[in-house]
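Exercise 3.2. Students should predict the tertiary structure of the chain below and write it as structure tokens, then compare their answer with the key that follows.

Predict this chain's 3D structure.
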Amino acid sequence: MEIPALFLLKGHDRRLRAGHPWIFSNEVDNKRSPLKSFEPGEQVAVLGHNGKWLAWATVNPNSLICARVVSRRREHPLDRSLLVHRLKVALGLRERLYSRPCYRLLFGDADGVPGLVVDRFGDHLSVQLTTAGMEVRRDEVIAALEKVVRPAGILLRNDTPVRELEGLPRYVELAAGEVPEEVILEENGCRFATSLHHGQKTGWFYDQAANRGRLGRWVAGKRVLDLFSYAGAWGVKALAAGAGEALCVDQSESALALAERNATLNGLQGKVATLRADAFEALRELKQAGERFDIVVVDPPAFIKRKKDIKSGSLAYRRINEAALGVLARDGLLVSSSCSYHMEEARLLEVIHQGARHRDRGLQLVERGGQGPDHPVHPAVPETAYLKTLFLRVLPGF
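Answer key:
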């Protein structure tokens, strides 16, 4: 079957030629190729104003990003064969870096599969399809995963809100094999239990794995506060590395139960305390009670999801970090993260410094980290470089 053409307006092919994989609706020549004539998820041949072939892409006429490049080789349109190839290339990177099969296996645009995220938990896969182009090819995606990885089970975690931007419904569905309610993953020498069916996002936050490993050299004998703890990954890792005790704070009762389960899995039962509370309220209560911690980890969900949220989100980052400083012991360590793409590292450091000055505290930036190598960055898509983690020594004001 002949693949239809999508024509770009004159001069609007420059970004594409420079390597960016997105095409916006205002860049399309709607007279020659009306967007409404395409079905969501349909594959198109992207042509310049002069008719020269540029790339293969999947299209969604209902989205601002109306087309996403899937191949720049004319002989390789998107099909099961290309999916298998991209998967093998991605797997090669992960197997080179990780001794255990626990990592993000596919990371969307950065791995040449826009709209496809796959997290691996040993023999089980958690999959998110976030674009119409991948949704209509879900059977081909599952077939490619089965061929290359041969998992015991594949779960579709298609309940992310971002699907609504593509006009897609939200659902969770077993796609192949069996996926138990609880799976065990390994990270930095620790074992963790999580739920792929009901856990946050795909079930785990692999992007912070390298930063959690980096924490180890700071924690010997220390008291650690893990805010927004989810399943206790930061707190349990700190204890395994020699911390004296850890308090995990989260609003989810099931998440805190997992934190306790994970402490037990690593022979650390009794060393993790949990507090079910809003992080802001917890910090207020802990300060009033005179509690002090040597290390405070602030790893919140994204406070800035859209550009228009920058002002209010920046204030939220300042408030939570300033409150965290209020329970830090003398010469303590603040580990502060943002997974908001719109919150640049320099801006994050600035708002934390503002909070520190308000409390008459000084800061030294001693380490910084981003997402792990299983979340590679696409050079032309800055949105794929989203995670910032700052390790800040906190001292009396100077």
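Discussion points: Residues 80-177 form a domain with the Transcription Regulator spoIIAA fold (CATH 3.30.750.80). The chain has a mean pLDDT of 96.
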